[in-house]
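User: quick one
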Amino acid sequence: MGLRIAARQRARAALLPPQPTAKATDMNVQTQNPALSAVGVAHAHHYPAKMPVVGNARLYRIVVIGLLALAVLTPVGLIIYQSFLTGPFFSPRAAFGLDAYSYVFTDRNFYKALGTTTVSAFGMVAIAVPLGGLLSFLITRTDIRFKRLLEILVLVPMFISSIVLAFGYTVSVGPTGFLSLAMRDIIGIVPWNIYSLTGMIVIAGLSHVPHVYLYVSSAMRSLPSDLEEAARTSGASIWQVSRDVTLPMVLPSIVFAASLNVLLGFETFGIPLVLGDPNGIMVLTTYIYKLTTLFGTPTYQLMAVVAVVLLLITLPLVWMQRRLLRNARRYAALGGKGARVATLKLGRNGQLVALGIIGLWLFVSVVLPIGGITVRAFVDAWGEGVNLLDQLTLANFVRLTEVPSLVRGMINTVILSVVGGAVAVGIYLLVGLAGHRNHGLSNTVLDYIVLLPRALPGLVIGLAFFWVFLFVPFLTPLRPTLFSLFIAYVVVGLSYGLRLLQGTLIQVAPELEESARTTGATIGRTWRDIVIPIVRPGLAGAWALIMIIFLREYATGVYLMGAGTEVIGSLMVSLLTTGAMNTIAALALISIVLTGAGLALALRLGARIHD
Amino acid sequence: QDAALIEAAKKEGTVSVYTSTDSAQSQKLQDAFTKRYGIAIAYNDLGTNGAYNQVISEAAAGQVTADVVWSSAMDLQMTLVKDGYAQEYASPEAANIPAWANYKNILFGTTVEPIGVIYNTKALTEDRLPKTYADMITFLKNNKTELQGKVATFDPEKSGSGFLHHSNDARQRKDFWDLAKALGEDGAKIYSSSGGMKETVVSGENVMAINIIGSYALDWVKESPNLGVHFASDYTPAFSRLALVVNNAPNPNAAKLFVDFLLSQEGQSALAEGGLPAVRKDATGGLNIDTLNERVGGGLKPITVDEGLLDYMEPTKRVQFLNDWKAALGR
Amino acid sequence: MTELVVNNVQKWLGGLQILKGASFTAERGSIVALLGASGSGKTTLLRCVAGLEQPEIGRIVIGDRTVLDGERKIALPPEQRNIGLVFQSYALWPHRTVRENVGYGLKLRGVASAEIGSRVQAILERLGLGHLADRYPSQLSGGQQQRVAICRALVYEPRVLLLDEPLSNLDAKLREEARYWIRKLILDLEICAILVTHDQSEALAAADNILLLQDGRIVQQGTPQEIYSNPNSFYSADFLGANNIIKGRVQTLDGAKATIGGEGWSLPGVVRDAAGVSGNSDATAVIRVEQISVSDKAMEGGIEMDLDDSIYLGDRWEYRLHRGGLIAKANGALQIAPGKVWAWIPSDAVWVFPAQK
Amino acid sequence: MTELVVNNVQKWLGGLQILKGASFTAERGSIVALLGASGSGKTTLLRCVAGLEQPEIGRIVIGDRTVLDGERKIALPPEQRNIGLVFQSYALWPHRTVRENVGYGLKLRGVASAEIGSRVQAILERLGLGHLADRYPSQLSGGQQQRVAICRALVYEPRVLLLDEPLSNLDAKLREEARYWIRKLILDLEICAILVTHDQSEALAAADNILLLQDGRIVQQGTPQEIYSNPNSFYSADFLGANNIIKGRVQTLDGAKATIGGEGWSLPGVVRDAAGVSGNSDATAVIRVEQISVSDKAMEGGIEMDLDDSIYLGDRWEYRLHRGGLIAKANGALQIAPGKVWAWIPSDAVWVFPAQK
Ligand SMILES: Nc1ncnc2c1ncn2[C@@H]1O[C@H](COP(=O)(O)OP(=O)(O)OP(=O)(O)O)[C@@H](O)[C@H]1O
Ligand SMILES: Nc1ncnc2c1ncn2[C@@H]1O[C@H](COP(=O)(O)OP(=O)(O)OP(=O)(O)O)[C@@H](O)[C@H]1O
Ligand SMILES: [Mg+2]
Ligand SMILES: [Mg+2]
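Assistant: Done. Structure below.
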C-alpha cells in the first residue's frame, strides 16, 4: 500500500511544480553552466532536491487535518474493529474472529441486497447528475426568469428526510394517492407503481438533484463569463457552450457530486424502507436494519461487516475522483483580470423550454411529495373513497404543542442546524484551507477521509459516535448534551460541506493569493483577506446546505439523542413505530417551513455578499 | 408507601427512564408523577433496540445513567433481567397486578395491550370480519382475489414486536402456520413499523392489517373515520410494557418510586388515559384489563412474563422460526 | 464592399452611459483600428459588435444581415454572427490543451478531424507555437497565451474579426510578424477586422482606417495619414504621435494663422480648432516631436533654445529643450552637448487649439 | 549599492528546465529591464525573485538578507521579502474596490487608516484613477485594471519592485506618463526595480541596465546603449531595434572586417560573433533600419537600389528596397516615388554573424 501511494504521488507530481522526471535530469546533465557542473555531478541522476516550502502553514495543516482524521477515523475504526469480533466489542464474551464476515458473505440476501443497491445507486446518479448539472447551468449562467424563486425551490427536495419524502410520495402517487386516484378516474388505470425498483430509482434520482445542483452551481457561479463568451463568439450555441466549456470547467464539482451521490445511493435508507420493503425489495441499509433484530438482540458485528463493505466502496470512488481531478489548476478560472460576469441570453423559446423542464421537475420532486405531506398534515384520513375536504383539521398541529419533547425537539433542531450549521461551516472552512494548495500526504488523507463518513449509514455512524462518547473517558460528560450530536453531525455533514467549500476554493486563481503574498500578507492573512472573502458566497451556500442537512438528519441522532436533546428527525423515527403518522406529517411540514425560512435567510445573506 | 423511599427519591430529584413508549402516550403519566413527587423525569424515548443497546453499553462502560427501563420488547427486557442488568425490587404495589405480570419482583408488566386487526371501513364492513382465529384463516383463503396484495402484517425479521406477536401465536396456537400460509397465498405485504401499516390501511392501499398493536389501533380509529379495529373473540393475545430497575442505577430510590407509581392506581389510570390499557382492574380514565377484555370479546390472553419469552432468543430456534415463516409466506 | 455597419450604438453599463452613439463602417479586406484612451469604451464597442453586450440603442449590420436593431428589437446571439474575437483577457479555456482551444471553432463547424488537426497545427506553427500544442494554458507564458488566443479566433476564418489588443504581450519582433501575417490573412480571405490597440504605431502601420474613440463617441475617422496629419481636435492631435504640448497665449490671430507665445518666446502656427481661440485668449499648441529639428549651429529662422540633456533612445537621441516657459522635446541622430542650440519649427507644424484644462 | 543579487538560479517547471542559471545584480535607485522573447522565462525569473516559485538551485539576496539559498535550503516566503509585484495578469482582488486593492499593502504594514486613505488617493490620482476608487475590478477597463495593479504594488514603497509588463495595456501617452512617474518614484525612494517588458523602446528609455534573457539564460547585460549598439550575438542584435536581416555569403574576411554578398550585391561589414564565420561560409548580417539613409539622388558610396514602396508611419516614411537578393527597409522624412534610389549603409553598421537557421 505504501508503495502504491508513493507511485501515485509520483504520477501526480509530474503535473505539479517542481517535479522530477527523466527529461529534466537529462537536461540537467547537458547544461553547460559551469556553476552547475560541480553540483551537477552529484545530481547527475537526481533531480535537484526540493526546496523546503516555507510560510506554508505546515503545522496548521497537519494539526487540522490530523484532528479531522481523528474525529472521522475513531468511529470508523471502531466499526472496523467491531466487524472482527464475535460479539459487541464491550462484551467480555467477544472474541476475535471472522464469524461475522462468513455469515454475511454466505448470506444469499446480502448479495441480493448488494446487487439491488448497486443498481439503484447508479440509476439514481444517472438521473440526478445530468439533471442537476442542467439546472445549475440554467439558473446560474443564463438569464432565466424567476431566478431568485427557482434558487430556493430547487433545493426543496432536500428539505425533508428520505423517509418523509417517500411517505409524501405515497400520499400523492402511491396506489391510493390523490393523484393516482385522479389519474385512475381519467384513464382507468394508474400508469405507475412507486413500489418497485424503478419507482425507487426515479424518486431517489429526482430527489437527489439538489445535491448535484448545489455543488455544480456554486462552481458555476464563480466561473468568469469570458470563457463562455469566447466559445459563443467561436460559434457555439448556448447548449454547445454549456457542454464544451461550462460543464467541463466545473468538472471537479460534477465528479464530486457524482461520487457523493453514488455513496448516498448506497446509504439511502428511507426510500427503500418505505417503497421497497413491503414488497421485499431489500438494499444494504435495510439489510443492516434487519440485522438489528434478526437475532433478537442487536448483532453489531454483522452490521459492522456490512458497514465495512460500504466503506470499501468509497475507496475506488475516491481513487477515481483523484485521478480525474489531478490537475486542479486546470479548473482555476477566477482569474486576476477582472472579467465581467454576464449571463447567457436564452431567448423566448429558450426560456419556455428551460422553464418547462424545470417546472416539470419541480412538479415531480417538489409538488408531489410536499403536496402529499401537506395534505397528510391537515387530514386524519385519506385514500380510496375519502373526500379530503371533509377531513380537514388542525388537530395534528395542536397535538404537537402538547408534547414537551416535541417542542424541545423543534428548538434543539433549530439550534443545531442554524448555529451548529454555521459553526460546522467554520470548521469545514478551517479544514478546507488546511488542504488548500497543499499537495502532500495530508491532502491524500483528506481526500479519503472526507467521503468515509458518508459511506456509513447514519444509524451506524450514530451508534459508533454513541460508543465513542460513552467509552472515551473525557468525552463522557458531553454525551447527554447537544454537543455530542453536533460532533456527529459535523462528521456526517463533512462530505457535503467540505467539498462544497473545496470546490469553490479550487476556483480562486493562484495569482490572487500570490499577489497578496507579495504585498506582504502571510498565508494566514491571505486566507483571511483574500481567499475567504472571495469564497464567501460559497460559504453562505454551504451554510444553507449544512443547515438543511442538519435539519432533516434522522438516523444519526437515534442513538445519541436523549432526554432534553431530542431532534425532530430522530423523533419522527420513533413516532413511526407507534404509527403517529399525523404527527409525523405535521412535524415534517413544520420542518419544511423552517428549512425554507432558514434557506431564504441564508440566500439573502449570501446574495448581499455576492452583489 | 414507604416515606423513607419517597424522601430519598426526592433527594435524588430525578429519574432517568429509557423507554420505547413515545412521550405523547405517556405524557399524562409523567405529569402525574412529577406533580406528585416533584421529581423530574429524564424521559428517553429510544425505541426498543435503542433502550436495550444503551443499557448494556452503559453498563460495560461503567457509565450507567438509566434508572428504569420501560419497554414493550418483552423478550429484550427478559434478556436484560437474565443477563443481570436489573435489580430485584419488591414493590408494595406488586400485589395489585396479576401474577402473570410479575416476574420474580424484577420485571413488572404495566399495561396489557391487545393484538388485533385493523381494516379500512370503505373496503370491508364490520360484519364481514371473521369472529374467531380459525375463521380468519378461512376468510383469508376465501377472499383471495379481493385481498390479493392488500393484507399487511408485521415483518418479524425487521420488527421486534412483530416477532413477538407472531412467535407468541406460534407458541399458543397450532393453526398459526395455516394463518401464515393463508397470508402467503394472499400475497401479504410485510412492514417494519405500525405506522407504515396503519397508513396503508387508512389510505385503502391495504384492506386490512393483521397482528397489529390493538391499543394503538383503538386510538387511531378515534381520529381516522375510515379505519376500523377488530379482535377475534376466542383468542386475543396481549403484550405488556415491562418495567425494571437497572442495576447500579444512579437514582435507585427514584427508580423504585417510579416503578411503584407505574403500578399504582394513579399511575395505571394515567396510562389508561394516554391510551395504554392498564393491567390493574381498578384503573380508571381508560381501558383496564377487565374493560379491555370486554371490548375484545372476552378472549384476552396476555403473554405471561416468564422465561418462555426467551425461547426464541436462541439463535437456531429463531432462525428456524424465521425460515418457516418465510417458507409459509412463499418468500 | 461594406462588411460591417455600426450605427449610433449606445450602451449603458452600471448606470453609466459608456457608448454615446458610435457609428462607423468597415470594408471587406480591410483593417480598421480602434484607438482611444484607456476607458474610452473600445472593449465595450467590440463586445457590442460581437453580441456579448446588447446596446440599448443602435443598429449593427454584418455582411447583409442585421444582427442588431434597437428599434426592431433584433439581436442575434454571438454564435450566429460569424465573428472571431480575441479577448483582452485571452479567455483561453483552461481545461483544454492549446490544440483543443484552437480547434474548437472548426469542430463546431463540422470540419473533419483530420483537417482540423492539420489546420490547427499550421496556424500554431505560424505563430511559433507548434511545440506547445499539447500544453494547457496554465503552462504557457503570457505571450504564448495571447498567441493561442489569436490562433483560436482566426483559424475558422470568420467574416469579421474583432481583436482586442491582441499583440500587447508580444515583443516587437513577434508583434511585427504576427501583424504582418494577420494582415495578409485578412486580405487573402477578404474579411474585415477591427483592431483595438493602444499602440499607435501599430495602428498607423497596420490599419487602412482609424477610428478615434473619445468617451464613447467616435471623434475622428480616416486613413492613418489623415488622422495623423489632420487632427480635428486637441484630443486627436494629442492622442497620436509623440507631441510637445505648449501652453501659451494667442498673440496675433489672422484667419487660420495665429501666433502663440509666452514669457520670452513666441511661435507662429495654424489654428486647428477655432472654437474658443480668439485674440489674447489662452491656447494650447501641439507640435509633433519629429517636426522640430535641432542643431548646435546657428540656423536661419531657428529659435535659440537651451538644451538640457540628450537621452539615448536606441535608434535616435531625444533632446530636452527649453526657452523660458517653452519646453520641448525633439529627436535627432547625434548626441549634442547641453548648452545653446537652435531649433527649427515650421509654422504649419504648430497646431493651435483652445486652452485645455 | 547593490540591492538585489540573483546568482545561478535554476528552475524546473512541468519537467522542463525553464531557468538555466540566471545571474544578475541590481543597484539601488535603478531600473533593470528584463528583455527576452516570449516564453524565454522572464515571468518565471521574476516569480523566483518574488518567492512565488522555489528554484531548485541558486541564491538570491535582497538588501542584506539571503532570501533564497538552494544549498542551505533557505527560502523566505514572499511576504518576508519586502517586494512589490505587478502581475502580467493584474491579479486584482475581485471582491475589493480599487481603493481596498491598493490600500491593502499599507493596511498590512499597520499604517493608520487616515494615512492609507490619503496615500491611496494620491497614487490613484497620479495614474488618473482618482474617480474610480470605489469601483470593483470587473467594472474597469483593461488599462484601468493594469494601472490599479501598478498602484497596488507601489503604494507601500517596497525595497524591490518587480514589474511584469506593467504598461502593456496602456496607450502611448499614458504609458509614457506612467513610466516617467515610476522612474521618478524609484529614484526618489532609492528602491530597485526589475521591469519585464516586450517594448524595447520602453526598456531603452526607462532602464539603467538591460538584461537580455534567452531560453532561461541571461545572454547579455549592459546599459541600454551598450546593448543596443554592441550586441554580442545574433539574438541580441536581432531582438532589439528594427532590423534588416540579410542572408549572404562571406566573400572576404580580414580580421573583424568581412564582406558579405549575394547575387548582384555585396556589402562591407564587421564580424560581431566570429564563431562559425569563415571565408566563403554562409552568414547573416543585421543592419539597423535607421542606419540606412536613402535618397532619390545619386550619392557617393551609396548603393543603387530599387524602391518598391514608401509606407506612411506617422512620424516618418518607411522605404521598401531591394537589389537582387538584398531586401531592406529604411526610414526617411519624405515620401519617395518608387524607382531607382541610392542607399548609404555605413560599413560598421553591417554586423556579420554566423548563418542562422
Ligand atoms: N507549468 C508549466 N509547465 C511547463 N512549462 C511551463 C509552465 N509554466 C511556464 N512554462 C513554460 O516556461 C517558459 C517560460 O515562461 P514565462 O512565463 O517565464 O515566459 P515569459 O518570458 O514571461 O514570456 P512572455 O513574454 O510570453 O510572458 C514558457 O516557454 C512556458 O511555456
Ligand atoms: N460594469 C461596469 N459598470 C460601470 N462601468 C463600467 C463597467 N464596465 C466597464 N465600465 C467602464 O466603461 C468604460 C469603458 O470600458 P472599456 O472596457 O470599453 O474601455 P477600453 O476602451 O477597452 O479601455 P482599455 O484600453 O483600458 O481596455 C470604462 O471607463 C469602464 O470603467
Ligand atoms: Mg479594453
Ligand atoms: Mg510573462
